[in-house]
Amino acid sequence: MREYFHQSEERKDDIEELLQRYEDLRNGNSTSYLEEESFERIINHFESKEAFKKALQATEMAIGQFPYSAGLLIKKADLVLNNREYDTALELLDKAAIFDGNNIDIYILKTESLLALDRQEDAVALLEEALNLFEGEEKVDLLFELADVYDDYEDFEKVFDCLKWILELEPANEEALYKICFWTDYTGRNAESIELHQKIINEHPYSELAWFNLGAAYQGIKLYEKAIDAYKYAIVIDEKFDYAYRNIGDAYIRLRKYRDAIENLERVLELAKPEDVIYEAIGYCYEKLKNYAQARFYFRKASHLNEDKGALLYKIALTYYKEDKFELCARQLEAALKIKNNNSEYLLLLGQSKLALGLDKEALQYFLNVVRLRPKQLAGWEALFIGLYKAEFFEQGLMQLNNAFLRMGADKPLFHYYKALFYFGLNQPKQALIEFEAGLVGAPRLLKRILEVEPELLQRSTVNALILKNKKK
């Protein structure tokens, strides 16, 4: 420890001595000579103190003494780049290339200058030329630069190509493994990613990132069982790989294996900082398992971490609706509407809750708001038709059907079924049967939906006759 402090003090004294010699030289008070390495140390010192103007002055003095130093010319180019003097930087780098054409920093700084001047094609051409000059780590560095250029100019397929090339050169390159996972998903090049990562795994079977990326690529083409197997290998290598558990949870949800999904998502909560999306996903699984109390528990946990509380209040309301707890459902929705007062989804469910509570007029007001906000959404119109039918507003129902036709710009088979209901309600059976048959011809599958609204239709012999007639067809 004492030796470390002693060396540190020596370095401090050394730089202070160099700075004094530099100041004497700059002020013309000395005929002493500074080596190129000494100038580099002085320049680096000024840069570390963010005294960039002084660093540039020192660089210019150094170049005066060492005009053929590529390193000093590159350093000056880097400093003038910070001042946005891009053309000056390019001139300096061209000069540096005469003395040391194999210095990778020349190409990297030239790329930065060209991009700043919006000369993307020149930057790409420069880097592609440089790729033929360098090997190993330097080639990899250039490929990362090229990938960034393509990213900036939204040529995303070529970003993937660069990362793939890097991994062919360095299969265990962690930065490339992290990045290619995102770009595989973005470009949809899952088949290539599967082939690439299988090769990497053959060489590096204990690369948890390669196994993870393989799983993500399988997941991208909906081969969820294979994805889960790959993620499990990643977890064997790194049992605290929370993203692997997260993706396993997602894959199990896709497979509708909700209990398995919950188990893995709960593991994510143990390993990582709690996130609203994880709580929400667990809530979704419990909802699918019809364990509505547990679903609400996790939706509420999610709401504490999510600014969009309205959406989670809606999910909680939906669980109450499924349990026929319409008053509790309505309370949640009323709270959600205070956050987003014109959300058609919230208004629709609130209207349905009010209708279930026998509050027909209130329900109709909500349904009317829904069709005003979303005139081309069929669900809102259908809810309005049901509300009007339940309230026995048959003439208004026919009027709203005409409005729906005008707003949606299409004659839906479902409209004919509801017209039939309203005409039956008005005691106009002949017209009702015409509309009912039009519905059967257009969409026989929708008959079940209409019978849920009015099961007594089947007590009419004429309706049964029409159903049988169309079944024979």
Automatic annotation (TrEMBL):
- Spans of the TPR repeats are 140-173, 208-241, 242-275, 276-309, 344-377
The protein's UniProt keywords, in alphabetical order, are: TPR repeat
Q: Name one Pfam family in it.
A: TPR_8
Q: Has UniProt tagged this entry with the keyword NADP? A: no
Name the domain of life this protein comes from: Bacteria
Q: Which InterPro entries match?
A: TPR-like_helical_dom_sf, TPR_rpt
Q: Does the keyword Repressor apply?
A: no
Protein name per its UniProtKB record? Uncharacterized protein
Species of the source: Niabella soli DSM 19437
